[in-house]
Design brief:
The protein is 7% helix and 39% strand. By secondary structure, it is mainly β. The chain has a single domain, classed as Jelly Rolls, CATH 2.60.120.1140. It has a seven-stranded mixed β-sheet with strand order 8-7-10-5-4-3-11. A two-stranded antiparallel ribbon has the order 1-2. A two-stranded antiparallel sheet has the order 6-9. Strand 3 and strand 4 form a beta hairpin. The longest helix has 6 residues. The relative contact order is 0.21.
Length: 162
Amino acid sequence: MVFCSRPIRLGRRFFLGAPVLLAATAAGAQDSEIKYDRSSLVIVTAAREIKFDIEMALTEPQREHGLMFRKSLGPYEGMLFDFYREQPVSFWMKNTLIPLDMVFIAGDGTIRHVHANAKPLSTDTIPSEYPVRAVLEINGGTAGLLGIKPGDKVKHQIFGDA
């Protein structure tokens, strides 16, 4: 176990905040060891509604592992990270092999920020810029291609509107 009293990055993820106690085993887990529930969500843009099939990262080990080591992601697939309450979050791309768009979502389902084309394997932090409830990761470039932007709405059961 590791004890840290400053902002830390866990595996590929990172919470900012108070002292944290964590198990070091989750960061090295392979995809086959981490199981995710599947769901779908809809993003409502000014032009249309776009459905994504997603995996749900609901537990700390799932959020820490995320999409690390994946070699591909389908065009309308993604992963939704639920933090259960609004808070500032920060991600990085360590051990992530594909470029990703990160869609930062408020508790009411409103998109607050989109970080496009996060660079694979980078350890640079990517902040939410605002407190958010969830983050949707999709293929890099998809948000721009589909016109997904701040102010659009995400419909999913975690936001109480699905």
